[in-house]
Design brief:
Number of strands: 17
Radius of gyration: 32 Å
Strand order of the largest sheet: 12-11-10-9-14-15-16-17-13
Number of helices: 6
């Protein structure tokens, strides 16, 4: 080998060494950056969990063939992954998180390869909960025990067969719509109500026919010792009418029982009676600051069980259920008027 060849090999070896050093430096920088990013993500996840007072940052489960998944947002509030805009009441998910965190077997049995006898091969429920560090804790829930108060289960951090309380399983069966943050109506009194308008059912086949309407106006008489509200209908004092008294009492106590359909289809709206609503209520009132405001409720059909009626509030498309006990007097007035 000539002097030139040896020199060339030396130079090339030096260049290769420098390139290796540069590569190691680049990889080191990238590794540190990745570690820093991972640490930052972990800190964020921990902060979210601490805000929610939860051991987990996401919970996903399948129960009775229905899949539900929830996660914590950047503010530490639970949301439904399928629809982040859904007004979720996080109480149920918080309870599930606590139950999973504190889960303790009531009894343990030897491990078994035959899971079918406990219906763990096709489980009634399966839950996965992810901790802030990314580790996953899983629970497989099988059939109920003989007394019906417990269930056989497999826990991912144990090898044995467990018997656990059925409390967790019962929580997993709760519908997402039952986790809806129900709307509330303004806190109004007779002294703040201005008018109440009840409109009866329209006839789609005769759109030119105006539905029956009952317009009640409130006149407020105030003095240093007394505050009295007089109700008038077509220039007639109806303050002492039992129907009007029942109506005003119910208006003060209105509340929604449950969410029925968050994003109803046209078919659902028709089935619930909103293509030809049974009645419409509009209440004008004065707020605590003295401003004029109003709210409206559209009433559809009775639900099949007959205990309530489908309603929509304002311009919202969501269908709710209200109990008949609060609606019967006003539905009667809306359809028949005041005698």
């Amino acid at each position: 080998m000539s002097w030139f060849e040896r020199k060339l090999i030396t130079v090339l070896s030096m260049i290769l060494g420098l390139l290796c050093v540069a590569l190691l430096l680049v990889l080191s920088v990238r590794y540190r950056a990745a570690q820093s990013e991972a640490n930052q993500e972990y800190i964020v996840e921990v902060e979210k969990a601490e805000t929610a007072r939860s051991a987990f940052t996401s919970i996903s489960y399948r129960c009775d063939k229905i899949q539900k998944s929830f996660s914590l947002d950047e503010t530490g509030k639970w949301y439904w992954i399928s629809d982040p805009a859904f007004p979720l009441n996080s109480e149920t998910i918080s309870t599930i998180s606590t139950l999973v965190e504190n889960l303790t077997p009531q009894q343990t049995l030897p491990p078994t390869e035959d899971l079918s006898g406990y219906e763990l091969d096709d489980p009634a429920a399966y839950l996965s909960a992810v901790k802030p560090d990314g580790t996953e804790f899983c629970i497989t829930i099988g059939k109920a025990t003989t007394d019906g108060n417990s269930r056989y289960a497999l826990l991912s951090d144990r090898d044995d067969l467990c018997v656990i309380s059925d409390t967790l399983y019962n929580m997993l069966k709760i519908s997402v719509y039952d986790m809806y943050t129900l709307p509330t109506f303004p806190a109004i009194t007779e002294e703040t109500v201005q008018t109440v308008i009840l409109q009866g059912k329209s006839d789609p086949s005769n759109p030119d026919v105006i539905p029956r309407s009952t317009f009640l106006s409130a006149l407020h008489s105030t003095s240093e010792t007394d505050s009295t509200t007089f109700w008038h209908f077509m220039n007639r004092d109806v303050t002492n009418s039992p129907a009007v008294q029942a109506l005003t009492e119910d208006i003060m106590a209105l509340e929604v029982a449950k969410c029925v359909d968050y994003h109803p289809s046209a078919g659902a709206l028709s089935l619930c009676g909103f293509d030809a609503p049974f009645a419409t209520l509009t209440v004008h009132y004065t707020t605590s600051s003295g401003a004029d405001d109003n709210y409206s409720i559209t009433f559809g059909n009775r639900e099949p069980g007959g205990s309530g009626r489908y309603v929509q509030i304002g311009t919202e498309e969501t269908i709710f259920l209200m109990e008949n006990d609060l609606l019967d007097p006003m539905m009667s007035i809306a359809q028949n008027g005041l005698s």
